[in-house]
């Protein structure tokens, strides 16, 4: 039987509410005792957060991108950014005290995280203890939708989880609107 689920705003098979991927990210969240609301949607190659937001009926500003960058010293790091904003590399470099930062290519991002691009979660990455930087204004939202570790799978959580589980450092790295 399919019913509407008021909290998540999507149709959920109420006979099997736990049918969602159990990824390394989900395992980390479970181990930390974090309550999640799984949010599945039909993934579209290169659709980005706009497609995810539309499919889930949520504001793209609350959909969080997990981006893999590296410093000029080739140190990898994760950046969590609003879906409707871009990272300003100069702003990020200044915020973290690096000379410069650049986005990692797909192969490098997948090597560091263990996830496929389009399904990168900041939770349960292959490289342990990657530094995580979160756009400061993410913490102002009542809920965020962040990748659970598989394409087409977001988890709805409270933003404070970014600090409590990932030790995410708030930064001001969003590029100004054009």
Summarize the helices and strands and which ones pair or pack.
Layout: E1 2-4, E2 11-13, H1 24-31, E3 37-40, H2 48-56, E4 63-71, E5 76-82, H3 89-96, E6 101-103, H4 106-113, E7 132-135, E8 144-150, E9 153-157, H5 160-166, E10 169-171
Parallel strand pairs: 4-8, 5-7, 7-10
Antiparallel strand pairs: 1-2, 3-9, 4-5, 4-6, 8-9
Labels describing this entry:
globular; single chain; YbaK protein; 178 residues; disordered N terminus; eight-stranded mixed β-sheet; alpha/beta
Concise account of the structure shown:
The chain is an alpha/beta fold. It has helices at 24-31, 48-56, 89-96, 106-113, 160-166, and strands at residues 2-4, 11-13, 37-40, 63-71, 76-82, 101-103, 132-135, 144-150, 153-157, 169-171. Residues 1-17 have low confidence and may be disordered.
Task: Explain what the structure shows.
The termini are far apart. The protein has 178 residues and is of the alpha/beta class. The chain has helices at residues 24-31, 48-56, 89-96, 106-113, 160-166; strands at 2-4, 11-13, 37-40, 63-71, 76-82, 101-103, 132-135, 144-150, 153-157, 169-171. Residues 1-17 have low confidence and may be disordered. It is built from five helices and ten strands. A hairpin with a 4-residue loop joins strand 4 (63-71) and strand 5. It has one domain (2-171): YbaK/aminoacyl-tRNA synthetase-associated domain (YbaK protein, Alpha-Beta Complex).
């Amino acid at each position: 039987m399919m019913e509407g689920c008021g909290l998540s705003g999507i149709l959920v098979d109420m006979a099997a509410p736990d049918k969602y991927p159990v990824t390394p990210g989900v395992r980390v969240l479970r181990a930390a005792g974090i309550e999640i609301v799984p949010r599945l949607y039909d993934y579209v190659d290169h659709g980005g957060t706009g497609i995810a937001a539309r499919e889930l009926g949520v504001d793209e500003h609350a959909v969080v991108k997990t981006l893999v960058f590296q410093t000029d010293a080739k140190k990898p790091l994760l950046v969590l950014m609003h879906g409707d904003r871009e990272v300003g590399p100069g702003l990020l470099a200044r915020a973290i005290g690096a000379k410069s930062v650049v986005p990692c290519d797909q192969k490098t991002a997948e090597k560091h995280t263990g996830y496929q691009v389009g399904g990168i979660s900041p939770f349960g990455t292959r490289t342990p203890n990657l530094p995580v930087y979160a756009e400061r204004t993410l913490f102002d939202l009542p809920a965020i939708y962040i990748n659970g570790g598989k394409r087409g799978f977001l988890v709805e959580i409270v933003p404070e989880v970014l600090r409590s589980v990932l030790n995410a450092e708030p930064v001001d790295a969003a590029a100004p609107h054009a």
